Amino acid sequence: MTAIVDTTLEQVMTEIGDFIVAQLGLATGQLVISYPNRVSNPPASPGWIDMTVATRTRLNTNIDGWDMTIDDPTMTTQESHWQLGVQIDCYGPTAEQWVLILETLFRDEMGCDALTFSQPLYADEGTRAPVENDSQQYENRWVMTAYFQYDPVVSTAQDFANTLEIEVVNVFERYPPT
Questions:
Q1: What is the domain-level CATH number for residue 119?
Q2: In what helix (H) or strand (E) does residue 14 lie, and over which residues does it extend?
Q3: Which stretch of DSSP H or E encloses residue 86?
Q4: What residue numbers bound the domain in which 86 lies?
Q5: pTM reported for the whole predicted model
Q6: How far is CA 136 from CA 50, 126, 131, in A?
Q7: Residue 112: how many CB atoms within 10 A of its CB?
Q8: What average pLDDT does the chain have?
Q9: How many Å is the Cα radius of gyration of the chain?
């Protein structure tokens, strides 16, 4: 059996995106998980959000284990903990308010309660970063990075022994000195 992982980066990003959409009341198409090559940006009004994985940092060495409640286990687990930095770019006339809402919720118990695949650790303060569009006009943009912890578990096949046969061997008889 090949190794499998229980929590993927795609699941984490989708869940964070769903939380953002629900809290800001965004419509379909107002949230983009980057990098969408050759896809035009949504309209500047009413605004939209672009989420990008900026960093992924390991927080520990592996924690190995297996399910001790099973009499005859066949799988081992290797758990690792990661800090994920997600850059959130908010565009449009309400970009500053969106960043303020997200900064607040990602530093609150509400953000922790809402997410299951990851947990918010902290969020930095938003920065105003206007961007020039294809018409050489500036669009309102606020950028922030929110940090989350996620703990994927990799499961691999493993042989176990639950009974052993012990045999006493006279070493000198079996392996005489030469």
A1: 3.30.2000.30
A2: helix 9-24
A3: strand 82-91
A4: 4-174
A5: 0.81
A6: 20, 24, 9
A7: 14
A8: 89
A9: 25
